[in-house]
Amino acid sequence: MRVITLILLLHTPILLLAQTKSIKKATTENDSVKVEIFKLDESINSDFDDFAPVITADGSQMFFTSTRPFTEKEKKKNQEGKERIYVSNYDFETKKWNKAEPLPDNINLPNINVSNIAISNDGQRLLIYQGFDVKQGDIFETVLKGKKWTDAVSIGKEINTEFHESSASISPDGKTIYFVSERKGGLGGRDIWKSTLGKDNKWGPAENLGKIINTMQDEEAVFIHPDGKTLFFSSKGHKSMGGYDIYKSTFDGTKWSKPQNLGTPINTEGDDLFFVLDASGKKAYYSSAKDGGKQNIYEINFIPLKKEADLQPLVTILKGTVKDAQTKQPLEAKIEIIDNEKNEVIATFNSNSETGRYLVSLPSGKNYGINVSAEGYLFHSENFTLSDTASYKEVKKNILLNKADVGTKVVLRNIFFDFGKATLRPESINELNKLKRVMEENASIKIEISGHTDNVSSDEYNLKLSENRAKAVVEYLVQNGIAKERLTFKGYGKSQPIATNDTEEGRQENRRVEFKIISK
Fold first, then answer.
1. 292: pLDDT confidence band, cut at 50, 70 and 90?
2. Which domain holds residue 410?
């Protein structure tokens, strides 16, 4: 067994990997990480080409393309078919993929090649390729509505051209698509381009990622990580080992870093494509023909041996369900992600109408407000402050939405004051305007705004501070058109805690502003 060097690029140091002649499974380790790479079993792979895996951010679902027999005629003859899309769910208890099933006929259309090329982090937007051959085809989009995928529609003329568009990836906020095209204006062959969603909800003009990423030879199989700044792609340029090799580049806010080759045994003398990495940075998948003539899908596990922050991507995954607080029935709710410092809605998602499930990716380095709302219900808000060094974390939050009934309370988690003061900070504006819209949409309700504190400081001080903070919210609403007679305010000091005052986290929850419906 020959030991070779791999420059591993997932926030890790240089690693040594063992290369075996048949890469069904290879294992190596150093002081920081153990690395395993192996071919997935028959639940995913077949005797035909299986390739282009894409996964949800939490690694719970995989979509991939296969040429295995699809029609009854093909199955009888064990004959290779056209490209078709399959999906498999991961069983976290058995740590195995369930048997893959084809997507429905409205996606896997007859007589043309249909291949998946990108999945949104929450698994509800799928970009697919449709074409009659490998040289002619475009990118289409289908959306999961409940349990059904909508008919695929073209992604638009700014992305699709008379030339070949072959692969793509969706940014965590859903507002940028990175894609591969051989259109004119590139540096040579297939290049990686990007398009940004405009205010009209249409994709804007394509922009070439430039000569740092693209070469005079072909680039392919682009993937943007859930951290929003790490790009993986395959290239025949950048001094590849042979055919397509997989590379990584990081965006620092201004420019992309020089691409780095992932090295052997991930890269081989053949074509190595479609590398995707889950949000935790611990598990990756890609396709390769390293084990013979057919493409197969491989799994790579990165197992930390030390708790080192630099081994983990700087991203938080927030996921859970949205349901009716009384009936516990799933709800399709609108989920807004807000940059509190800029008071901007930076992303909008929907929970699934059939399951209520949602998943959002929050790259580190921001203070996020999250608003969840559904027609006929009061909104729910959350707040996350993620420093620019916050390593990977997965937060599960099941959200119950209440209808606008008398006695219903809502905690306003994105209203902020300076320490010991009752002056509203600018980052509170989005939440205040959300409350204003609730009052406008429910024109008959009257509410009480209440202020609450932890148990630090005297009772007198806390009562006064909580009252002044509640009053500041009422004054904002009145100044912005809400009738004064519909609003009351009261300070409760430390008398109504919702968490323990024995920890800083608990005290932070207790320092809050709420509104309560007192009449309809």
1. low
2. 406-520
Do 141 and 272 belong together in one domain? yes
Chain length of the chain: 520
| Percent above pLDDT 90 for the chain | 63
332 and 428 part of one domain:
no
φ/ψ of residue 442, rounded to 5: -120, 75
| Banded model confidence at residue 288, pLDDT cuts 50, 70, 90 | confident
Query: Does residue 437 sit in helix, strand or coil?
Result: helix
What pLDDT, on the 0 to 100 scale, is given for residue 13? Answer: 27
CA distances, 54 to each of 15, 237, 315, 354, 406 (Å): 25, 24, 19, 23, 46
Could you tell me if 150 and 283 lie in one domain? yes
**Distance from C-alpha of 261 to C-alpha of 267, rounded to nearest angstrom:** 8
Same domain (yes/no): 307, 392 = no
Query: Using CA atoms, how far apart are residues 495 and 452, in angstroms rounded to an integer?
Result: 8
Q: Average pLDDT of the chain?
A: 87
* Tally of structural domains, the chain: 3
In this prediction, residue 2 carries a pLDDT of 23
**CATH number of the domain encompassing residue 101:** 2.120.10.30
- Read out DSSP for 178-240? EEEE--TTSSSSSEEEEEEB-TTSSB---EE--TTT--SS-EEEEEE-TTSSEEEEEES-SS-
Q: How confident is the model at residue 83 (pLDDT cuts 50, 70, 90)?
A: very high
Cα 288 to the center of its chain, rounded Å: 25
Contact criterion met (CB below 8 Å) for 332 and 93: no
Question: How big is the chain by its Cα radius of gyration, in Å?
Answer: 26
Structure tokens at 53: 């895996």
Q: How far apart (Å, rounded) are the C-alpha atoms in residues 88 and 286?
A: 15
Per-residue pLDDT, 308: 52
- Check pLDDT > 80 for residue 62: yes
At 122, is the secondary structure helix, strand, or coil?
coil
